[in-house]
Structures are given as C-alpha cells and as structure tokens.
Amino acid sequence: MLAVQQLEAGYGESVILRDVSLKVKVGQVVCLLGRNGVGKTTLMKSIMGLLKARGGSVSYNGADLTKKAPGLRAKSGIGYVPQGREIFAQLSVYENLLLGLEASREKLNAVPKEAIAKFPVLPTMYARRGGDLSGGQQQQLAFARALASRPEVLLLDEPCEGIQPSIVDDIRDVIRSIKADGKTAILLVEQSLDFVKSVGDYFYVLEKGAIAWEGGLESLDDEVVRKYLTV
Known about the structure:
Family: Belongs to the ABC transporter superfamily.
Strand order of the largest sheet: 6-7-8-3-9-10
Domain ABC transporter: 2-231
Protein name: Urea ABC transporter ATP-binding protein
Largest sheet: 6 strands, mixed
CATH superfamily: P-loop containing nucleotide triphosphate hydrolases
GO molecular function, one term: ATP hydrolysis activity
InterPro entries: AAA+_ATPase, ABC_transporter-like_ATP-bd, ABC_transptr_urea_ATP-bd_UrtE, BCAA_Transport_ATP-bd_LivF, P-loop_NTPase
C-alpha cells in the first residue's frame, strides 16, 4: 500500500501542499481531483521524489521512502507517467521503452511482453523517433515505458490530456485491465470527471493544497462537483 501522511511540499518560499494524507491499496484506482493549480502535479512529484518533502512522509508497504532518491523509489516498485509525457524525442520508440527497464527491480534485458501487449501499435513504430509520434502515440509510449519496469504502484498524471478520443478509450481499457489483475495500486490525476468515474474506486479532492473532500463513487455527487471542481 502507498501511504502519504501529512505531506508538505512547495517551491522556493511557496508552500503548495499542506498536511496532505492519502492511501492507495493494491488493486485499487484512487483518483486525485481538483481545479487547476491546487497542487495535484506537485503531489505526484513529491511522491516520486522529484520534489523534496518539507514535512510528513511517503511510504510503500511500510518502508519509508521520504528521503529516498527518485531512482530508488522507482526500484521499490513505483512507476510514473508524468504530465506532458516527457518522451525522449531523439531516441527511437524502442530505446524509450528500454529506458523503462532501468527502474526494474529485476534484471530485465528486454521489454516485457505484457507492457507492449496493452499498446499493440507500438511495435510497429519501434524504429521511429519518439518526437515524430503524435500526442496520443507519445502518451501510449510513456504508459508502456512505465509498465516496462513491472511496477506495483502506478502514478498517472493527466494521461488523457490533449489526446484523441480513441486513444482515451484505449487508456481507459488499459487502466481497467490493470485494475482487474488486482496486482497494482494506481493513483490517477485526471480532469475528466466522466473518465475518473469510469475507472475510479475512491476519490480525493485537493483545494488550495489540502485535502478538502474524500469518498467513494456514490458520494461524488453534484454538490461536491459544484463546490470543488466546477470552474
């Protein structure tokens, strides 16, 4: 289980996250919601170790990761699909996938078949440069790269941002299939309410850097949406 306890983080003199606590269990899709600028990506970066926590803790299966470097967090079983994809434009699709193996706890010398099977278009593009792919194809590549390390926790930051509806449907199917396997904990940041309702089990809402609401799908009603999510 991934556990965040009373986390505080920010940039420079600015404090963005205040006393944030949440949990993600294996086999569960937990969705992090909130308006733009409330700290969702900051929280994902803090969990991954790309942003140093100023207070609180991040742990996985009881092991404290708060002071661990991002690479060690990845090797502990955390995969990350960042907002904006961060594909290496000059590297081939296959080379981008191979970089995902660096985070594996196992000594893998080839991209696992199960990572590619979820995105069957990628093998047809192995020789193409990452920068030549469409936005949707880059998102699939970023997702497959994260899956290449066989993570037990998957952090997904806006995986549907700026991509065509057909690939949004593909990503929804992939998340559902990972969830059905029951072996991975998923923390998902996504703006589309319809999307998160179609895959999520539990929901947290960030407001001004703090958890303002949490609950299951049955509790995510129009009042909550109007109060915390409507622009």
